[in-house]
Design brief:
The complex is a heterodimer. By secondary structure, chain A is an all-beta fold. In chain A, 0% of the residues lie in helices and 56% in strands. Chain A is globular. By secondary structure, chain B is mainly β. Helices cover 0% and strands 58% of the residues of chain B. Chain B has no helices and 11 strands. Chain B is globular. Classes of the chains: A mainly beta, B mainly beta. At the A-B interface, strand 5, strand 9 and strand 10 of A face strand 5, strand 9 and strand 10 of B.
Chain lengths: 115, 113
């Protein structure tokens, strides 16, 4: 099973709302990622968790707050977003980082629209 | 140094033809090179991947050619089909505390029936 599951698939939120994106994997992967993708652009890295600890934050604004409750779950909490934050948000996971670089498996994404 | 340059930006190929997408990198710390296929509204799906100690890898109609000395690699899609029409991203990964993926800019491939 190489599946990464993201919920919800679509989300519309106002600029004053608080919402959360959820991601789950059961492949035993120990690295999990959040990416943001705008139309016709490659995915852009936001955060990396390695062994449930935040290891990379690509200078993401504080209105995005990641959380990794356990090795299978990854959340992205959203608060006071701007319309320019509208994008496809992708979660990904990869194997044990201590064993060297390997490919990541992506979820289907959450299409976020900020109004 | 962290960039992966991908070309062409878009490509149109006749059904049954060979599609070729090229990528180049500078950072010799990269040690894994996956290719992803993405359909509109979907997440990227891993297609095929290669390590720099291998010059070629083939899986079905998809082949990666890797030239370590030139720091270039390419994806060949043989017998291209309309269902292959998608955006393709090359990527490079180096190991740090976690595998950080650097994506190319993408190639929009259209296969004409």
């Amino acid at each position: 099973d190489t599946e990464v599951t993201q919920t919800p698939k679509h989300l519309v939120m106002g600029m004053t709302n608080k919402k959360s994106l959820k991601c789950e994997q059961h492949m035993g992967h120990r690295a999990m990622y959040w990416y943001k993708q705008k139309a016709k652009k490659p995915p852009e890295l936001m955060f990396v968790y390695s062994y449930e600890k935040l290891s990379i934050n690509e200078s993401v604004p504080s209105r995005f707050s990641p959380e990794c409750p356990n090795s299978s779950l990854l959340n992205l909490h959203l608060h006071a977003l701007q319309p320019e934050d509208s994008a496809l948000y992708l979660c990904a996971s990869s194997q044990d980082p201590r064993q060297g670089a390997t490919e990541a498996f992506f979820g289907q994404g959450t299409r976020l629209t900020v109004v | 140094q962290q960039q992966v340059k991908q070309s062409p930006q878009s490509l149109i190929v006749q059904k049954g033809g060979i599609s070729i997408i090229n990528c180049a990198y500078e950072n010799t710390a990269f040690d894994y090179f996956p290719w992803y296929q993405q359909f509109p509204g979907k997440g990227p799906a891993l297609l095929i991947a290669i390590r720099p100690d291998v010059s070629e890898k083939k899986e079905g109609r998809f082949t990666i050619s890797f030239n370590k000395s030139a720091k270039q690699f390419s994806l060949h899609i043989m017998d291209s089909q309309p269902g292959d029409s998608a955006t393709y991203f090359c990527a490079a990964i180096y190991d740090s505390s976690a595998s950080k993926i650097i994506f190319g800019s993408g190639t929009r491939l259209s296969i004409r029936p």
